[in-house]
Structures are given as C-alpha cells and as structure tokens.
Amino acid sequence: MNRPLVSILINNYNYGHFLQDAIQSVLNQTYKNIEIIIVDDGSTDNSRDIIKKYDENVISILKDNAGQASAFNIGFSKSKGEIILFLDSDDIFLPGKVEKIIQIFEDNHNIGWCFHALEFTDKDLVVLKDKKTYALFNENNKSGVYDLRNHINRGKVGCKIPLNGTATSGLCFKRSLLTNILPMPEEIRITSDDYIKCAAFVSTPGYFLLEKIALQRIHGNNLYTLREDEQKQFTKNKIEILTAYWLRKNFPLTRKYANKIFGISINKHKYLGERDSSLRERIGDYRSTLNILENLDLCVRSFYYHLKR
Description:
By secondary structure, this protein is α/β, with parallel strands linked by helices. Helix 10 packs across helix 12 (292-308). 42% of the residues lie in helices and 18% in strands. Helix 2 links the parallel strand 2 (34-41) and strand 3 (59-63). Strands 1, 2, 3, 4, 5, 6, 7, 8 and 9 form a nine-stranded mixed sheet that branches. Keywords: Transferase.
C-alpha cells in the first residue's frame, strides 16, 4: 500500500542553537515518506549555516522577517504532502510521531485535523513537572474524534476541547483542509496557530490525541508560553482581537465565537490601556460589521466582564 507523503514545515527565527535538534528529530522518524521544509524568517544568528548543512535533506526557504503567519503561508505553498505537520524549530518530534499521526488519519477518513499533547521541557530537554504546565491538559477527557462545528457555530467551544493548550508543534492537517485556511492574514504575526485551530474546528471533524508525542521547550526566548506578566496580557489581547476580526471576516460560521472573543478582548483592551493605535482601526472595522442584536450582546458582555474585574 502506498502511504501518503508527509510535509513537515519547520519555522525558524534565530533558534540556531536548537534547530539541528529539530531537524534530526524529523530525520529520525520511523515513517520515512516525508519532505522537510524549513522556512527561515530572517534569522541573524547561525541558523542559515545550520540549514546549509542539511541541503541534501531539506527544502530551505530563506526570507526576510515577516512573522509566523508569513512562514506558515510560504512553507505550505512550497509543500507537496497529503498530510502537513508543523514544527517550531526549538521543539522536537519523538521518533514514532509521524507514524502515529498517519495511522490516525488512515483509521479516521472523515477527519481533517489531528492535534496532540506536548511534553514541556526546559532548554536541556528535562521534563517540567510543575502544575502550570499541566493546566493546559485536561486528563479527564479521552483521545478520539471530536466534531466541534456546531459548538463553534453557537459560540460555545472551550469546555468541549480536551486539549486546551496545544501549540504549533502539536498541529497536523490534511492538505485538503489547509488549502481552505492558508494563506492566512500575516497581520497575526505570533501565535498564528490560534487562528488556524479555530478555522479547522469550524471546517471538519478532527482528532484529539492526548499522548505526548513531541517535546516543547520552555526557555528564555519563548517564555511567553507560561508567562503571566502584563506585557504578555497585552500581546495576548492584541492577538485575540486580530484573530476574532479575521475569523469573522474569512469564516462567517465562526461569527458567534469570534464575537465572544472580541467582547472579552475589547474589555481587556480598555483595562490594559491603549498601547497600539493600529488596533483602533481593526476594532472599528469589527464593530461596523455587527448588527443591532450583536452590538447589544457586545455591550452586555463588556459590562459583565467589567464587573468581574
């Protein structure tokens, strides 16, 4: 039986000290019908020297810095695989990951995506056991097929997701689904996976795998993952506003869900203070698309979240 080609897209920016580990983790996969595409997003360290060492094994795309969404877009446009896997360049796939993912897609023909759990480690790959890391993982739920389309349509999805915090390196897709999602708005420069995940949820059923088959490093340059300071809150708030705007614009069935995100986010935006004038236009554009009932609902939500503070 001919098994599908898998494209593994590695996005990199100044992670030369981790990049070789990421590449080797893909080359060490038990599943061999793969292509490796590395998008270097304008690195100024030794990343491109590392990439050059693997010229015979990878397809390299060297570009100016434009953010994660840009890297996703160009990497996907150059790929050929039926199945697409993302990998951040500071993370690592465990050897049997691709084999496991392919088996899930082969056993569940109706799914378009598979998202799996990640094992958090420090920069030296020592597993982190503190409670904060496990807060992203609901162990009371089960691996299996989930259809979230109706929940997204009703604007209610959070409690239905067994895997709250899976990041880029835990995302796997059929090409047929990603073709309808990418290219994505490049204005969403970081944590672009939030947009992709929600677009996937509203498009097809998928599979949540609670087995941790990749390692996510937590280190000095990506502490955003676990940080709780005010700067992270502002950045997160900005991303949520932009994500809500583009989801509503590009995927109308997410309208109620996007409105919910937007309602919470603009209240946080007021609380955190104006730091980015470019958001004013997006907030105004979003409000202009709302009908009377949606505007009323937005006011109620904003007042409710204001009272909760």
